[in-house]
Each structure stands twice: as C-alpha cells, then as structure tokens.
Amino acid sequence: MRINAEIIRKYSLEEVALLVMFAFGLLIAGLIVVRRSRIEMSEPVQLPYSGLSLSLPAGPGWEWEGFAGWSYATTNEFNLSKRLLVGNKIAAGVHCRYLLASPETDPEQVLTDRLSAATLQEVRSGRIVNDVAIHWVQIADTFLGVASLDHGRMLEVMVKAPAEHRLADKVFRLVAESVVFESDKLISQGVDFIQRFRSQGLADIRQQQNAADSESVYLINDAGDKPAGFQIEIFRRSAEGGDWSSVAVERIHYTVGTRGQTSKSHFECTDRLDRFIWRSDRTIRRARRAITTEIELTGDGYMKIRRATSSKELTYRPADGAVPEILIDRIARAFLDAYENGAVIDLILADGAIVPAVISTVGASLDTENKWGAAYSVRVRFLLGGDAYVQSYFDFEKNLVGKIDKSRRVLYWHKSDRKTLAETFDNIERHLGPPPVGR
After folding, report:
1. pLDDT at 70 over 90
2. What whole-number percentage of the chain has pLDDT above 70?
3. How far is residue 9 from each of residues 3, 4, 138, 331, measured CA to CA in Å?
4. How many CB atoms are closer than 10 A to CB 302?
5. Is the Cα torsion angle 289, 291, 297, 303 positive or negative in sign?
6. How far apart are CA 164 and CA 167, in angstroms?
7. Which of 113, 207, 280, 417 is the most buried (most CB within 10 A)?
8. How far is the CA of 180 from the CAs of 97, 132, 183, 303, 334, in angstroms?
C-alpha cells in the first residue's frame, strides 16, 4: 500500500502504521462480509456458436474486466472476466477461457502440465460434474478448473482471491455449477464438411479448376473503385523430391497506403491435408525487415508455430474442423456442393491465430453488391464480435469471378491478369520482389 508523502509529514510513523492497519482491517472485514453473504449470479452469458454459457458474480462490487461479455483474444481463444472491488482494492477475480485449440485435450493432463510449468503444488483437487466434467485444483488462493468440450475445444475457469481462499472456493463452485453446454450443430456440420473436403483430395480439386498451374490474379479496389492492392496466387502440384508434400500454393498479397504491406507465402501440404508447412513473410511499408512466421502441422496432429519475433515455439492441436486460410477459395468452392445451409469452421491464419467462422451460401440474384452478375455466392463470416467477412462470387460453371472483403473497410476483388497489374501499379516488380519463401 503506497502512502502519500504529505500524510507521512503530517502524522508520526506510529499514526501512519495505525492508519495502514485500519485500512487493512476494513479490507478484511469487507471480504468476510462478502464471503458470508449470498453471492448474486448473473444471467447466463452465452458465447454464440459454441453451445456454451455460464454465469458470473453480479452483486455489489463486481465489475467487468475489459469487455462486458465474451471477447476474442489474439491467438485462439475467447475470454470472459470479472473482478471484485472492495474499496479501491481488487479482492477477487474470475477469468474464463474458451479455447479453440490447446496443446492437450485431456483436462487432468492440462492441470498437471500447468502445475509443473509453474513449479506449484496443489492443495486440493476434485471434479464438478454438470453438463460437462470440470476437473479442478486449488493452489493457495487460486482455483483452476478445466473441461473438455466437443471437437477439441476446452473451457478453463480460474478464480483468485488473494486475501481469502474461502471466497475463491465459493465463487469458483458457483461459476462451475452454472456451466451449461450443448453440442453445437453448426460446429459438427463444419467438422463433417472439412473432413469431406480433405477426403476429396486437394489434387482432385486442383484438376477441376481447368488450369495447368491454377494461377489466380486479382485487382483489389476500394469502395471508391480506386486500386487498393492486388493478389497473385499459384496453386500447383509440388515439385518432386519432397518426402511427403503433394500440393503447393504460392501467394503474394500487396496493399497500398501509408500502412501498406506486402505478404508472401509458400504453403505445402499432403493431398489429404493431414500435414502441411506454411512459411510467410510480411513487410510493412518502410519497415527494415520482414516479419516471418512458420506454421507446421505434423503427422501426429500437433501444429507448431515459430515466429521470428519470439524465441518461444507455440504448440496446439487444431480441431478436426480447422483448415488453413490460404485455401479459403477452394473451401468456398467446395461448399457450393456441400448442401449445408451453414457450418462453423476454424480458419488457421498466416500468423498462427485460429479464428472461428460461419460459412454459408447466400442468394446472389438479389444481392446489390453482386458486381459480377454471379450465379452463386458463399460468405465466410469471422466470429470476432464485428461484421468482418469474405464473400466469394461464382458464375454458372462455379468458377470464382470476384470477392468482397469486409473488415475495417470494404474491398472488391476482381479477376485480373499480370498485364493489368503492371498497368495499374508502377514498377510492379518492386512489389513482387524475389520469389516467395520456400521456392
């Protein structure tokens, strides 16, 4: 507790000590009152497209920490947090995590690994069974619970009360017992769709596109129809000599502006997509060096992420409904033949993040944004709390003719060629640079 210098000058050390003891006594008294009183719980807080909801403390002193509700974190999880204030002190905190992927899917192993990594000893452990089984441990004034959900997802609940472990115990049990879970139909449909996508084989998908190397060139315009960038992508069978790779994708993506950037990717995978390696370089305008990321899905199902900006290697086990975003055009095309109204899939991004998305067919005939006179349309909407999506448009033969990309702004992708790009952008070779990594 910090004491203002003016107070020290005004009172003797003995008086200051008494003030500190009095303030600490008030804090303890407040905690005892909270612990002994009935804790009011909120209405269930649902996480859309997960089948999961739970309640958090909602009585006097409890406030949201950050966003009021579930929010997507920067890697592969959604967070939900509240804290209890007694005076101006944080007396307790509740933090829930919904993980799209984790290194382990067995709750007891997750807890064991967590304790081992922090060199901590559990005080107590147990299990709370409701819609799901939550395995938990107590470490001093902290309670941590882990539950395995469908399709590789995980739930973690952590409650900490620094001055009162009985309060942490009470709050943890109330939160854990409030968990309601029902398997989400759209997630199951997404897993089935991706499994069929894999079983068809990427080599067969490539052959359906009637191009030797399936090169796709896009001119990207903003809402004012001004050039905002381009993308060149080559989808081909990988060169002979690799020990397992079957299909390769080369991609160069360029955006203009003061924050313009160039991204170059090299992706190789097996025909059934059970192994892949994805190397990407992202260069922001005027930056001295590129930001490099390498993602590898190994044969045992683990995904390793290595970034040049960090010495730590991240490891996850993606769900069966996870697929690299670099294949999004092939996924959208395959979904036209899937006959589902919608499904939830997990997109693995070039930086290693995993983002859930709803993929669905959309009527194209009455779509005012259909600049291409397309017959079919597929939308991939990212479940990040906003309205970000990519919508792909196909002609009567189901060839991709254009896209709309909406995130911070709306961009229109038009099928083009290298000659048009050279006429639109000065010195296009400057943007293309050397071949993508991996060539």
Report:
1. yes
2. 84
3. 11, 9, 44, 71
4. 14
5. positive
6. 6
7. 280
8. 15, 8, 10, 30, 34
Give phi and psi for 29, each to the nearest 5. Answer: -60, -40
CB-based contact 124:138 (threshold 8 Å) = yes
* Separation between Cα atoms, residue 419 and residue 412, nearest integer Å: 19
- Exposed, middle or buried by CB within 10 Å (0-12, 13-18, 19+), for 226? exposed
Calpha distance 39→57 (Å, rounded): 7
Six-digit token string for 308: 């040049």
Helix 328-335 to helix 185-200 angle (10° resolution) is: 100
pLDDT at 251: 94
Which residue in this structure is represented by tokens 């807080």? 45
Q: What is the chain's alpha carbon radius of gyration, rounded to the nearest angstrom?
A: 26
Report whether pLDDT(238) > 80.
no
Q: Residue 266's closest CA among 299, 300, 239, 240?
A: 239
Alpha carbon of residue 25 to chain centroid: 43
Place of tokens 């992420």: 305
- Per-residue pLDDT for 42 more than 90? yes
